[in-house]
């Protein structure tokens, strides 16, 4: 599969191919839902997505998991080194770091605004020192760099049937919706890292603060005030999904099955949290296997339909210009997503 993706993308340099493959392995290990949704994209676009998410994953790992007990100064130094390597890679197209090499190549191929990467690194640096957010406005400022720009980076790769400026706000909202979903699912794990992403004013409106969350996490006991706050955060997150939804039909048809599948699966995490009684301080809620399989099957059907439409359009074109297709439909993906 990897060789076919790289061949289709026209990536021939052996060192660059290895860099992209490294990114792909990072995504397969860390981002199971979106990694598998990416397989619904046309084969030639998948390496670019792996490069974008591989870079984001690598930077995030520096912040969250640079060895046990890594202090802030060490993580800050690692991020500073990454920023220098990123600037060099984007400027020269070369880097000793595989992830940066693949990212720089993707940015060049798709004309991705370098400011998005700078904003992302600013957010990563913020995570080293900021441990909570006073209100949703403060959280949104952070998420511009940590999530919204991911959607904006992806947009040139996915392609649009509208002008890109029209689709951009919806792409940014989708990135934010996905991250808010992660924040809700991972409240307990983030608390263990010393962070609370739920806005303090939202928590306070329900009689909750960091100490109350810590008590619940440590004792395993429930509190209806916490449940009420988590439910309010879920409602807020669903509102952002509604802001993102109009952007789906703005994408090129061959890209829609991938993003729609991710949209539905991530939204399903909110359903799982609610069905689990908002017990996110005590366990991670997951989308049931059967539900994931149904969504995957729907995605595959949409890919097949997009391929048929592309072939019909190509047959009607007098100039014989090839139309992008989504690649072979693989039924075993249903089992893999599940």
From TrEMBL:
Source organism of the structure: Streptomyces griseorubens
UniProt KW Transferase keyword: yes
The protein's annotated pathway: Carotenoid biosynthesis; phytoene biosynthesis
Region (Disordered): 316-338
Taxonomic lineage: Bacteria, Bacillati, Actinomycetota, Actinomycetes, Kitasatosporales
Top-level lineage group: Bacteria
PANTHER family the UniProt entry points to: BIFUNCTIONAL LYCOPENE CYCLASE/PHYTOENE SYNTHASE
Full protein name: Phytoene synthase
One Pfam family this sequence matches: SQS_PSY
